[in-house]
Every structure is written in C-alpha cells, then in structure tokens.
Amino acid sequence: MRSKLAYAGLAAAIVGTAVAAAPAAQAAGRDGVCQTGEFCLYYNSDHQGSVSDFTGSISDYGASQPGCYEFKGAGAGKDQCVKNNAAAAWNRTGKPVTLYFNSGYAGSHQTFAAGAKVNLSATLKNQNASHRFNDDGTSTTVAMSTALYVGGGGRLTTGFDGYHTTPGRHEGIDFAKGSGADVRALLGGTVTNVVEGGTGLSTIAVYNAQFDKTIIYLHTNPRDSVDTGDAITKGQVIADEAARGAGSAVHTHVEMRLGRKTLAAKSVNDPTLDNPNPNSFWRARGYTVN
Q1: What is the CA radius of gyration of the chain?
Q2: 107 close to 99: Cβ distance less than 8 angstroms
Q3: How is the chain split into domains, by residue range?
Q4: What is the 3-state secondary structure (H, E, C) of the chain?
Q5: pLDDT in tens, 57-101
Q6: pLDDT at residue 98 in the model
Q7: What is the pLDDT of residues 218-258, one digit of tens each?
Q8: Cα distance between residue 186 and residue 269, in whole Å
Q9: Does the structure show a pLDDT above 80 at 10?
Q10: What is 1-140's CATH topology?
Q11: What is the predicted pLDDT for the residue at 167?
Q12: CB-based contacts of 33: which residues, under 8 Å, 6+ apart?
C-alpha cells in the first residue's frame, strides 16, 4: 500500500502573520473514496458498489489475497481483488489513464480521458489486470507464447490446422517452453473438466461465460489446486508443462471451443474441423498469436 499526503485549505495567523492557503483537498490514501488526483475502479456498473482508488500506475493488480489490490470502499465487492472484477471507472487524475486486459500494460485496452466517468467496455468488464497513468492507449499487445508461461520465454510450435500431411486436423495452437514450466490460464472462467492423464492425454477445460467459449489445455500436468467447478482467473498458474498424451513432445496445446465443453475436439483420424479459426478471438483479447 502507498501512503499519500493529505492537503487541506487553511488560513492561520502565526505571530500576527497570515499564512497562504494550501491546495484544495486531494487524494488521502487508498481509502475507497474517489478523490481528485485518483483513478478509481468500481465493482459494479454505473459506478455502484465498492471503490478501489489509485494514485499511480499498477502493472499487475494481483489475483488473490493476501497481496492483491482490493476494493476498499463500502458496498458490494468490498475486499474482493480488483483483477478481473471491475465494471466501471472514474478518471480524476487530469491526464489520460488506460486500463488493460493483461498484466504488464498489454492486450485489449480502454483509455479514459481526464474526468471520464463511464462503464468499462464489454471486452474489459471483469477482464482487467493493469492500468497506466498518462497513457493514451497506444501500447502494443502481448504474445500468447509470452503470456502462457510464468516468466515468458515460450514459443509457438504449431498453429491452428497445422497438420496438413498427417491424419486428422489440428484444432488448437501449440506452444512450448520446457518440461515443468508453469502454465497460466489465458482467460478466466470456470473449470468444467480436469483429466490428469498420466501416460494418457491430460485435459484442463475452462469455460468463460462472458464470451461463451471453452479454452482447453492439453498435455500438461494439472496443478492439484485446480479442480472441476473452480473459478480461475486470467494469469493464474493451472499446470506444469509436460507431454501427457503427446509421446515425448513436451508442449501445451491451447484450443478454443464454442460454448461450454469438457473435452478437446477429436483430431486423430478425423478430417473434419469442429472449431473455428481462433486467431481473431485471441487478437480481440489482446494477444498476438505467436
């Protein structure tokens, strides 16, 4: 938490000499009150519910307590983490502030002019991870191969429908970093299925109701903390990279499916594509497919 000085207008006489008035009331701390000089996020649309007030840029709100930036004001959402939970904003800083879909000021974004008091866009509502002061929204997106792994460093190995010369069609996108690498969720949602795999195919399925899409992660070693029915957040570590069901090819298969699903589309000996090309969907989420 940051401490901030409070200023108040005053007039006093000291040994008969008048003292000039100080500046008007300013931000007094992360106290859940949206004051001059602050950028504020609200838990509910139309600036309802609890408030989280900031006086500087935050590159990652944090996904869990303790340690996350939380909603501080009274009302619905109080003490909840701000990350992926905000629905409205008020910019009282006097300069533009941009809110980002991803941590590190990356991905889809929404810029708030000085004084703007509006609801978040459909893309950013409950899908927000960082904001930057005096930012006009010209920052670039982040590569999926970077966002998928803690510490980045991943690489794209096979794109959508890449298996043109083998039986079946490739229904997802493959990335690789190395055995045991921490794998993060690219989108939040509810876990609909977890299959450990062992020597067979492993699966983690995460359904996002906002977009009505299920993101399937294959071949990884699911974390013990990830179970069917759990709500997970974008950026949360869900697995360790492995080769479960992929022979010796250590990698992570990421697949986007329409609607609520529990399993990946069939690919082996199946010439039919069940999934649409996911690249435009990922770009809209603030990722470049590389």
Answers
A1: 23
A2: no
A3: 1-140, 144-288
A4: CCCCCCCCCCCCEECCEECCCCCCCCCCCCCCCCCCCCEEEEEEHHHEEEEEEECCCECCCCCCCCCCCECCCCCCCCCCECCCCCCEEEECCCCCEEEEEECCCEEEEEEECCCCEEECCCCCCCCCCEEEECCCCCCCCEEHHHHCECCCCCEEEECCCCCCCCCCCCCCEEEECCCCCEEECCCCEEEEEEECCCCCCCEEEEEECCCCEEEEEECCEECCCCCCCCEECCCCEEEECECCCCCCCCEEEEEEEECCCCCCCCCCCCCCCCCCCCHHHHHHCCEECC
A5: 998 899 888 889 999 999 999 999 999 999 999 999 999 999 999
A6: 94
A7: 999 999 999 999 999 999 999 999 999 999 999 999 999 99
A8: 29
A9: no
A10: Gamma-B Crystallin; domain 1 (2.60.20)
A11: 78
A12: 51, 53, 73
Confidence class for position 280, pLDDT limits 50, 70, 90: confident
Domain 144-288 has CATH 2.70.70.10: yes
The two tokens of residue 171 are: 């229904």
